[in-house]
């Protein structure tokens, strides 16, 4: 009985769902992508096609040259930063260029209006 229960446990590090589990990701050199979740980050090597698929996903917005944020996980945008989940000293955040900050605010407001 215990064996069957152990098989059903999801391995967050290997089997995460991009839109649901990931707050933001960064694309590095040679296909190395760093995925950042609520309490972890995972680095995976992806091929060119896989990188094109995730960077063109409508759930993610390009905030600078190599970083993409999950627009559905954003809590606050300001001072050149995008904050996720909890605010304060425990906040997860990534930086955003001033040029893209305005556009991202519009997208987030539109999503909240649609919800």
UniProtKB/TrEMBL annotation:
<feature type="domain" description="HTH LytTR-type">
    <location>
        <begin position="20"/>
        <end position="106"/>
    </location>
</feature>
<protein>
    <recommendedName>
        <fullName>HTH LytTR-type domain-containing protein</fullName>
    </recommendedName>
</protein>
<dbReference type="InterPro" id="IPR007492">
    <property type="entry name" value="LytTR_DNA-bd_dom"/>
</dbReference>
<dbReference type="Pfam" id="PF04397">
    <property type="entry name" value="LytTR"/>
</dbReference>
């Amino acid at each position: 009985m215990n064996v069957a229960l152990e098989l059903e446990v999801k391995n967050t590090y290997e089997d995460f769902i991009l839109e649901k589990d990931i707050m933001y990701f960064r694309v590095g050199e040679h296909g190395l992508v760093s995925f950042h979740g609520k309490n972890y980050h995972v680095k995976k090597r992806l091929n060119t096609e896989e990188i094109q698929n995730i960077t063109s996903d409508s759930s993610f917005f390009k905030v600078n040259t190599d970083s993409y944020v999950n627009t559905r996980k954003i809590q606050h945008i300001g001072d050149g930063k995008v904050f996720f989940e909890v605010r304060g000293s425990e906040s997860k955040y990534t930086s955003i260029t001033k040029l893209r900050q305005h556009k991202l605010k519009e997208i987030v407001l539109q999503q909240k209006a649609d919800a």
